[in-house]
Amino acid sequence: MDPVLELVxxxxxxxxxxxxxxxxLLRPLGVTPVQAEALVILAEDGPLSIAGLGARMAAxxxxxxxxxxxxxxxxxxERRPSPHDGRQVELALTPSGRELADRIRAVRRPFVExxxxxxxxxxxxxxxxxxxxxxxxVRSLPEVP
Length: 145
Hints:
The structure is a single chain. By secondary structure, the protein is mainly alpha-helical. It has a single domain, classed as Winged helix-like DNA-binding domain superfamily/Winged helix DNA-binding domain (Arc Repressor Mutant, subunit A), CATH 1.10.10. It is built from six helices and three strands; from the N terminus they run ααβααββαα. A three-stranded antiparallel β-sheet has the order 1-3-2. α2 packs across α5 (95-120) and α3 (50-57) crosses α4. The chain starts with a helix and ends in a 5-residue tail after the last helix.
């Protein structure tokens, strides 16, 4: 198999398996992996605009808005006017959203630490830039109609 294709497939399979296992860990918290990712991003980087959240999540257009609607309906985030631009809306965690983000991080901590240990042998500092360069290349390709 071509080494580039093998790398891409290995990352895809690893991501699918990580998502599946992470979903099981999150089930008792009543949150999906995508919701958990958004809540943790907002806890660490927020408040953010919907576009800012989408960029950090590498989400499809339209998805961050629907995700924000679901997180708001659950009482985990609130929309508020941006202090920098009154035309913009920021997403911020509510107290219950912050508590849930803390619980998500606690649940995923052993998961992330185990993955870091597994990657340390090969050098996470080398692997991540390699995957990022591959992603940049793929994004630079012209769209196929």
